Amino acid sequence: MYRGLALLAAFCAIAALPMQARAQSVTLRFQIIEADGFTETDPAIADVREALRELFRFRGYRLATETMIRVHDGRFSQHFPTAGEVQYSIAAQHVALAGEAVGAQNVQIRELSLYAGGDDQILATSLTVPVGQTVVVGATRMRKANAPVLILVVRPDLR
Amino acid sequence: MDCAAAREALLSIDLEELASGGDGALAEHLRSCPDCAAATLAIVAATERLAVDLTPATSIAMQRPRTLPNRPLLIRSATAAGLVGAMLLGARAFQQGSTRVDPVSAPASTTTLPAVTVPPGQNAVVFRTSNPRITVVWYY
Asked: Closest residue of B to A98, CA-based?
């Protein structure tokens, strides 16, 4: 009974929010791709794989792991589902939506850090990504001996 | 030519010309300034490391930068099939001493293109691909 009333109250509260306020909930989809030596074709990264093939010599790409983050308070820190032996995590200190016009909004992600195996920071950057765009971030310096090149895919969305 | 002008020139010069020290005022400056000479070597070395991963067409595209009125540089290549363009950002590897330079970033807030802020000490190239929804940022 009380649970039903609570759910009803929550629904009414959400419905009462201005449309603009609800539209400012940012969702970030992150994918970690391993490059080189992989022949499988994962449809989840088909668009990115085609773009990378235009640019780089790597012989193949594999989706290692991915996660979806809904940003509530302007920052986040989250582990990826474990991919093999390596545990990846990602964090950002400031996430904000910029731009007023629908269809011309940018998601600002500042102090974005990707970690592997605990606190080994393998990427640090800040990005501004228009909603609906995909940014693919890689680094020659990510490469370690006998390890694949790691590539981070960032796909912001509004929910 | 002073160091500031030289480093501006280094960001827009043809990389083959850069490897050979350039000509004119820039070459003269590089011969007399160890810091800028080191910067030149750092840019060439970093770009060579990047080229290892690039397809030949993309690598060729990077050898022919075209200067825009403001940084970042925009590279276009008819030889790189599907490659719309690329922007070199940063070239921060050549910073020497205690001089602090703010991170370089592409304009973002008024465009529909992604932007990246490059921390001091790192270089990045931003590739626009044939897919208008996908931008590739590569640190090197």
From this structure: B109
Burial class (CB in 10 A: 0-12, 13-18, 19+), A111: middle
ipTM value for the complex: 0.80
Residues of B in contact with A93 (CB under 8 A): none
B104 touching chain A per CB within 8 A: no
Q: Among B62, B121, B57, which residue's Cα sits nearest to residue B87?
A: B62
For residue B58, the enclosing domain spans 3-139
Instruction: Summarize pLDDT for A15-34 with one digit per residue, the tens.
Output: 554 444 445 689 999 999 98
Note whether A124 contacts B119, CB cutoff 8 Å.
Answer: yes
Residue A137's closest CA among B44, B32, B114? B114
Looking at the structure of chain B, the number of domains it has is 1
> pLDDT class for A111, splitting at 50, 70, 90?
very high
Determine the distance in angstroms separating the CA of A39 from the nearest CA of chain B, rounded to an integer: 18
